[in-house]
Give the backbone structure.
Amino acid sequence: QVQLQESWGGSVQSGGSLRLSCVVSGYTYSRYSHCMGWFRQATGKEREGVAIIVRDQGTHYDESVKGRFTISIDNAIGTVYLQMNRLKPEDTAMYYCAAEAEVCDWNWTRYQYWGQGTQVTVSS
């Protein structure tokens, strides 16, 4: 059974940094998967893609986080990370890690496996 579990997010002031992690069990990115990603959903808004890592293609970032966020994977321990630097109040949202989609793009409905989410709050 595939399970994704995000770490505790937290609260920071604008300009600060946080690192999210997502432990993946029952699933091995390098051997079986096509892609993994981080998505977020702010209150009253649609879920949106933040960063995606696609096998044999590399990483992709939404324009709003490019240059500030970095997605990475440690296959040895089955963990996906999202390093978030220079955080802004508009980054405040519930963040979710997701895995596996037939088409690895920003359409969150394509992803098969999801974590329960972790709250990130950035104050000005």
